[in-house]
Structure formats: structure tokens, C-alpha cells
Amino acid sequence: MGILKIIGIVLAIIMVAAAGVWLFSLSGSYAAETLKPDGAVTGKALIVYDPGLSGNTKNVASSMANDLKAKGYEVVLAGPKSSDASKLSGYSILMVGSPTYGGKPSGTINSYLEGLNLPENITVGVYSTGGTDNNDSNQFMADILKKSSVRVEVSEKFGSSADKVEYSNFVSQILT
Ligand SMILES: Cc1cc2nc3c(=O)[nH]c(=O)nc-3n(C[C@H](O)[C@H](O)[C@H](O)COP(=O)(O)O)c2cc1C
Q1: Residue among 126, 136, 149 at smallest CA distance from 48
Q2: What is the pLDDT of residues 4-29, one digit of tens each?
Q3: Roughly what angle, to the nearest 10 degrees, separates helices 137-147 and 107-114?
Q4: How far is it, in rounded angstroms, from Cα 94 to Cα 118?
Q5: Does some domain include residue 161?
Q6: Of 58, 127, 128, 161, which residue has the fewest beta carbons closer than 10 angstroms?
Q7: Whose Cα sits closest to atom 31 in ligand 1?
Q8: Is pTM beyond 0.85 here?
Q9: Domain for residue 5, yes or no?
Q10: What's the rounded Cα separation, in Å, for the pair 171 and 61?
Q11: Measuring CA to CA, which residue among 81, 23, 34, 56 is closest to residue 158?
Q12: What domain range is 106 assigned to?
């Protein structure tokens, strides 16, 4: 087999894999699920997150959702393009999460935040996930909301070594 043919096959495999990852991520953008607490419902929270490519942002969202559920919250986990992400009435808490790409939140989350029309009395927290560098993708998210006079209660970037204790602290801060 000629070298050009081998290079062609390798490139084709890479392109198919990249398209698969992209489609998987896109489908997550439209997905939504609801977690209900075992006992009485004490409040409702919406967590909108970009499913990203490797699952970090989703894992943080799931961890926070389980934490809120254990505290009696009914939690909707929604991709930013799902219809649930824009239905904001009835929630007392909104959290928005994004991966960091080139120091900024993803384009999908950027657009979501810019288009948000929030009801009154909803407490907002934003988080980003990323590497260990010190760029402020979370601050970028908070600044978009501040432009529309939305008060952001908690804003944090979780590096690769962040754990459930930190996610739980984020939830505790938003609840106080
Ligand atoms: C193309 C690309 C660019 C990235 N740029 C940054 C960056 O500027 N700063 C950072 O802290 N992390 C950066 N990262 C790391 C991701 O933000 C990090 O791995 C994130 O948790 C991925 O989230 P996900 O698993 O939900 O996709 C980058 C990753 C990729 C793939």
C-alpha cells in the first residue's frame, strides 16, 4: 500500500472520529433531564451546561445536581440549546457551566448568556472547567451577565485537580 493511501486512510479515520465527537457534543446541547429528591421538594434549580468534548463540565454539573437533590431540590440539567434551558420561571437557582477554550467559555454558552432574560429573585452562579492556567473564563461569563445587570452570586473556574468538595462548596455558597 502506498504511503499516500495510508495517510488518506488515517486522515479519514481522524475526520470520522472528530465528526463523531462533534455530533455527540451537539446532541448533548439539546438534551435535558430532571432529578427529583427522595423526599419533599424544597426548591427548584436549573443547571445549564455545555456538554463539552471530554465530559468534565458535565461531571461537575452532575455532581452539583446530586448535591442539590440531596438538599431537597428538584434539578433540571439542560444543554444550552434545549428548550428547558430557556424556560426559567419557577426556579430559585440557575447555574451555568462551560469548558474553557482559548481562555474563554464556549461559543454556545456565550450566546446562551447573552440571550438570557432572567426572572426576578433567581440566584445565579457560573462556573467553568479548564486546565491549570489562570485565565478567567468564569469571570468572562459573569461579565456577560453583569452587562445586563444580573448579579452573579458565585463564580468559579475548576481546574483539572478540582474535586467534589469544591463543587459542593460552590453549591453551599449559592444556597447561602
Ligand atoms: C481546544 C481546547 C482549548 C483549550 N483551551 C483552554 C484554555 O485556554 N484554558 C484552560 O484552562 N483550559 C483549556 N482547555 C482545557 C479544557 O477547558 C478542559 O479540559 C475542560 O475541562 C474540558 O471540558 P469538557 O471535558 O467538558 O469538554 C482547552 C481544551 C481544548 C480542547
Answers
A1: 126
A2: 999 999 999 999 888 877 777 676 78
A3: 20
A4: 9
A5: yes
A6: 161
A7: 101
A8: yes
A9: no
A10: 11
A11: 56
A12: 31-175
Number of Cβ within 10 Å of residue 5's Cβ equals 9
| Number of independent structural domains in the chain | 1
Look-up of cell digits 455527540: 24
Q: Which atom of ligand 1 is nearest to the CA of 56?
A: 25
Pocket of ligand 1 (CB under 6 A): 52-58, 99-103, 129-131, 133, 135
Which of 24, 60, 63, 100 for a ligand 1 pocket mutation test, highest count of atoms within 8 Å of Cβ?
100
Beta carbons of 21 and 28 less than 8 angstroms apart? no
Q: Using the 8-state DSSP alphabet, how is residue 124 labeled?
A: E
**51 and 79 in contact (C-beta within 8 Å)?**
yes
Amino acid at 162: A
